[in-house]
Each structure stands twice: as structure tokens, then as C-alpha cells.
Design a protein that fits this description.
Layout: H1 11-29, E1 44-54, E2 73-82, E3 93-94, E4 97-98, E5 103-109, E6 126-131, H2 141-153, H3 159-163, H4 177-192, E7 196-197, E8 200-201, E9 216-217, E10 222-223, E11 228-236, H5 252-262, E12 269-279, H6 280-283, H7 287-290, E13 305-312, H8 320-328, H9 345-365
Antiparallel strand pairs: 1-2, 1-13, 2-5, 3-4, 5-6, 7-8, 9-11, 10-11, 11-12, 12-13
Helix pairs in contact: 1-2, 1-9
Length: about 375
């Protein structure tokens, strides 16, 4: 265990319960394993070849892990996806309104040298899994366990999750940590859906016409070398002004990527890969909120600093070979080097649940993705 973590005594049992419920949901969703997809982020918009390059002039204090060598270039794969567990429309309707929804950007940096986090991991990759909102809606394993039990009864209705918490959504007791977490969760879910809270628009980012027009975040923290932690982000260097999205097209985000990367005016897409970095001393006494609670963001006094660029060149991603590769890629934040060890309960949960999802898919279909 890292000095930057505090693991609750009941967490291991909660993770086992979440795995049981998650695999049970997958068994219901894919009877006999037919056509089994990932447990989350089931629908991809594309898998794209890219180059991950460490900044040439990276300051010495940031030369850690895969960023140790300024100018180092790595081949990479990028998978864009909807976060939902089912491969439905890109923007499903919620209360009669087209929902923004949570989106994912998973980056697999290849050819990475260094001490591996997992003893049996020979992938040589560093995986960065990101979402298009700055924190997770659910704080920790305890909260996700409660949510999983609710969704096992009604997969499309998370509202009872809030009712199980102290206080109410209308007038929460924010002095109580559990009620405060429930209120943050409610606000986050409404913001992700682009609905409103208190009559005011709450969208975290404008609904994108293309997956490459949003900023993505790691959500939970990671080590950044010795006694430091980071929260990562991938920010588009330049966004375009495409035609308004045709929400009647259930795959409009994939169509937008085809236009951007395969159309007559195709050009490279560049992201700035950035991180907020804090020392162990800085979070001392606040690990429960600043590390273990993934629904809490770090304030702006901890500025994002650019570490690398991610460049996605024009390419044809609509080939049988690319589709097969996309289904077979297995992403987990635990594919990586020791200097970037995932921190906090949500990351510890992701390791176990992603592995269980991968085992289910492999047993059912032969696919290796999680």
C-alpha cells in the first residue's frame, strides 16, 4: 500500500460483491456469452493509431516514469467510447431530452520500459483511461457497491441509490460526509446528462459533435514518482466547428470521426497531455478526500502542467482488421510502470472488475478486452 492511500477494512469484501453483481449483469445482458462486450464503455466510436510524445523541453522535476526522457516518442492506440454498459445510441433520450452522456478516451502507450505494476504483465504498455468529466460520479468502493446493488434490481434506474443515503437531494446535510458525497453524485450525474440542477444548465462540457472536441480526465489519481500524486487530462489543442450533430443518427460520433480523419479535409488531431501534481506532504491529513474520494476535484491552485502531446493522424479506421483489434484491446489503469501506480479505492476496484470482465468475455467469446 502506498503512503498516499488509506484502504478501508471492508473494501475487499465490497469489491468481491461488485464483481459478483457485475458479472451477473453481463450474464443477463449476454445470455450464453453471445456477443459479449465490455462491462462498461461497451460501444466504441473508433480505435485510432497515434503518437505519444514527451515534450522536448520537459522540466527536470517532471521527468518521471514514461516521461523520463524528453522527446521520447511512443506508438499508441486511442479508443473513444460511450461510458454506458450497453451499446445504445450515442445520445440517448432522458426525460425527452437528448442526453450528453459520459464519454471515454482510453490511451494505450506501447513500447514502455520499466518496472511493471503487475508481475504477470508483459504488455509493455502504459494505459491511461479517461472520461469527459473531471471526477468520477461515485466517490469510493462503498458508494459503488451501493450503486451496484441498486442497478442489479433495476439496471436503468440509479435513483434509489440516492434514497439510500442520509439526507435528501433537495436539502442535503453537507456536514455529513455520506450525504455530501450523495449530493456531489447527484450533481455530477445531472451534469453528465446535460440536464439541470436548480433550474440552471449544469453540463460539464458542451455536448461534442465529435469525440475529439472534449477534454478528458483521469478521474482518479495516480502516483507521479516518489511521494507525489497526479491527476491527468488530455485537452484538444484546437477544436473545429463541425456541422451540428444529427442526433437521430445513433452513431453520429463515429460519423464525425470519419469526416475528421478520413474526409477530404482530413487533418491530424492533437491533444495536450497534462497533469496536476501534488506532494504527499500537500495531501497529508486529507487523503480521504483528496486521494480516496474520486468525486472530489483538485482546485485550480494545482495547475495542470503539460507533459506530452498525443497526435492522431488521418487514417482509415473502418477496416475489418481495425474493428477486430478494437474489440481485442484490453485497457486497465494497472497496465503500466510502478512510477504511475493507480491510487485510491476506485482504481483498486477498477483493477479487479476489469479483470473479471475480461475473463467473462474471454470465456464466452475468446475476446481479450475488458
Amino acid at each position: 500500500m502506498s503512503q498516499l492511500e488509506i484502504i478501508p477494512s471492508e473494501e475487499a469484501a465490497q469489491i468481491e460483491n461488485i464483481i459478483r453483481l457485475t458479472v451477473g449483469q453481463m450474464e443477463k445482458r449476454y445470455p450464453g456469452g453471445a456477443g459479449a462486450r465490455r462491462g462498461q464503455h461497451a460501444k466504441d466510436h473508433a480505435c485510432l493509431g497515434a503518437t505519444f510524445k514527451v515534450l522536448d523541453d520537459l522540466p527536470a522535476d517532471l521527468r518521471v516514469g514514461i516521461f523520463a526522457r524528453p522527446g521520447q516518442e511512443y506508438p499508441a492506440w486511442v479508443r473513444y467510447s460511450n461510458a454506458a454498459s450497453k451499446a445504445g445510441p450515442d445520445s440517448p433520450t432522458v426525460q425527452g431530452i437528448a442526453s450528453h452522456g459520459s464519454r471515454g478516451m482510453a490511451v494505450k502507450v506501447t513500447g514502455v520500459q520499466g518496472s511493471r505494476l503487475l508481475a504477470d504483465d508483459e504488455s509493455g504498455t502504459q494505459d491511461f483511461l479517461m472520461i469527459n468529466h473531471p471526477a468520477f460520479p461515485f466517490a469510493n468502493v462503498e458508494d459503488y457497491n451501493a450503486l451496484s446493488e441498486v442497478l442489479a434490481l433495476d439496471p436503468d434506474n440509479p435513483n434509489p441509490f440516492f434514497a439510500r443515503r442520509k439526507g435528501t437531494m433537495e436539502a442535503p446535510d453537507l456536514s455529513d460526509p455520506v450525504s455530501a458525497r450523495a449530493w456531489r453524485t447527484f450533481q455530477m450525474v445531472m451534469a453528465i446528462r446535460s440536464l439541470s440542477v436548480g433550474g440552471k444548465p449544469a453540463a460539464l462540457q458542451a455536448p461534442p459533435a465529435s469525440p475529439v472536441d472534449n477534454t478528458y480526465f483521469g478521474g482518479a489519481p495516480f502516483l507521479f514518482g516518489e511521494a507525489r500524486a497526479m491527476r491527468i487530462s488530455a485537452r484538444p489543442v484546437a477544436t473545429m466547428q463541425p456541422a451540428p450533430a444529427d442526433l437521430s443518427d445513433q452513431g453520429y460520433l463515429r460519423a464525425a470521426l470519419r469526416e475528421r480523419l478520413m474526409g477530404p479535409t482530413a487533418q491530424s488531431v492533437v491533444f495536450a497531455f497534462e497533469a496536476q501534481i501534488r506532494t504527499a506532504a500537500d495531501v497529508e491529513g486529507a487523503i480521504e478526500t483528496q486521494i480516496e474520494d474520486a468525486s472530489v476535484t483538485w482546485d485550480a491552485s494545482h495547475a495542470f502542467r503539460q507533459l506530452a502531446t498525443l497526435t492522431i493522424p488521418p487514417q482509415d479506421f473502418e477496416t475489418g482488421e481495425r474493428h477486430s483489434l478494437c474489440e481485442g484491446l484490453f485497457f486497465t489503469p494497472w497496465h503500466g510502470v510502478a512510477e504511475h501506480r493507480p491510487l485510491g479505492g476506485i482504481n483498486r476496484l477498477r483493477r479487479a472488475v476489469y479483470e473479471a470482465s475480461a475473463r467473462f468475455r474471454k470465456a464466452s467469446t475468446g475476446a481479450t478486452a475488458g
